[in-house]
Amino acid sequence: MSDCLFCKIVSKEIEADVVHESSEVLAFRDINPAAPTHVLVIPKRHLSSATDLGDADGDLLVELFQTMASLAVTEGLGAGHRIVTNVGEHGGQTVPHLHFHVVGGRPMAWPPG
Ligand code: AMP
Ligand code: ZN
Fold first, then answer.
1. Quick one: how many helices (H) and strands (E) in the chain?
2. Per-residue pLDDT tens digits for 50-106
3. Which of 14, 55, 97, 110 is 20 to 30 A (C-alpha) from 2?
């Protein structure tokens, strides 16, 4: 999608601090980190949110979660971390391209606001 911020990061039209890249998945640091580690993990293909995932996306989902598991190791999140995907207005989604927040490096509160 030509007007999508994260598609522009995928195409390198907009710069980001990339920590992992494959043919299907990109991971980069959040520009406004909510914790000492805050990485966004996205499919390169444009999907608006988790509700866009379909029957053919099984391999993609596995790669996304394996990427997050590897990042937890390389980012030193041995004490635990949180994975969040916001969906739509009430979910607090501000960028309409599916992304998983990986946050850690401090204890997380629950429930979220
Ligand atoms: P969400 O509110 O769940 O849609 O998350 C969007 C996230 O994207 C927020 O945490 C923003 O700080 C982050 N963000 C927005 N623009 C950029 C950017 N150019 N590079 C990296 N992260 C960004
Ligand atoms: Zn997009």
1. 3, 5
2. 999 999 999 999 999 999 999 999 999 999 999 999 999 999 999 999 999 999 999
3. 55
Q: In the annotation, is 99 catalytic?
A: yes
The answer to whether the CB of 39 is under 6 A from ligand 1 is no
Q: Three-state SS for 90?
A: helix
Which atom of ligand 1 lies at the shortest distance from residue 16's CA? 20
In the chain the domains, ranked by start, together with CATH numbers, are 5-104 (3.30.428.10)
Label residue 12 by pLDDT band (50, 70, 90).
very high
| Nearest ligand to residue 35 Cα | 1
